[in-house]
Amino acid sequence: MRDAVTGAQGILEVNNLRIERDGKALLDVPHLCLGGPGPTLILGPNGAGKSLLLRCLHGLIHPDRGRVCQNGAALNAGHKTRQAMVFQSPVLLRRSVAANLDFVLKRRSLPHAERKQRIEALLDEGGLGGKARQPARSLSGGEAQRLAILRALALGPETLFLDEPTSALDPSATQMIERMILRASERGVRIVMVTHDIGQARRLASDIVMMQAGRVVEHGKAMQVLEAPESNESRRYLDGGLVT
Ligand SMILES: Nc1ncnc2c1ncn2[C@@H]1O[C@H](COP(=O)(O)OP(=O)(O)OP(=O)(O)O)[C@@H](O)[C@H]1O
Fold this sequence. Notes:
The protein is α/β, with parallel strands linked by helices and 244 residues long. It has helices at 50-57, 77-81, 97-107, 112-125, 141-154, 171-186, 198-204, 222-227, 232-239; strands at residues 12-21, 24-34, 40-43, 65-70, 73-74, 83-86, 159-163, 190-194, 207-212, 215-221.
């Protein structure tokens, strides 16, 4: 549901979120509010807790403490059906490209003719128009990731979580995916994406969440965080120094 005040997809918020293993905090986020509009990019070094946070936001992991809320209500099954997630390595069904999309559209109970139209439009959107009948598992890495994103978009999500979707791709494949992400964002899909790529954050982010050692060390407008970071951790990360 759109939020009238923010013009985005409502507020996604975490409060007192904590995940522990063996008494050590892997994630410790007292408060974080993602109101949109525009893509939110989560940056930080390896092991900072970016994927854990993304998985918590999507309800894949239950925190030991705290909770995720959408528009003030604890994340529930209804919210989750309006979210989708794409991982670093896409897992595609052992069937054709078109059938991978049809699988998702059938879950939305769309009639055959509408599904056919939607599949064509989606394949065009992802530059996969000529590959409808090709086995999905024979696609190149970039094509496979585009199909994974199209499949997530076929769900009609309000929020799309992306966990390093371009980390294994070359610049041209990355550019195609970034265009898809920006178009989805312009259509009103809330994008929350993990990346290590500072250049990508510059190209895509409206706001940036900077993480280190399980904590959010800075959250703000992308230009602000990238050009004039307030935290030492952000400065070191953006300067390209070794962050431990
Ligand atoms: N199920 C688990 N059990 C124990 N520790 C875990 C578990 N899942 C994640 N961790 C630890 O939590 C920390 C954060 O992991 P996470 O995957 O969120 O980091 P990340 O910032 O996404 O790193 P990367 O950029 O390398 O993907 C890491 O030290 C990881 O080993």
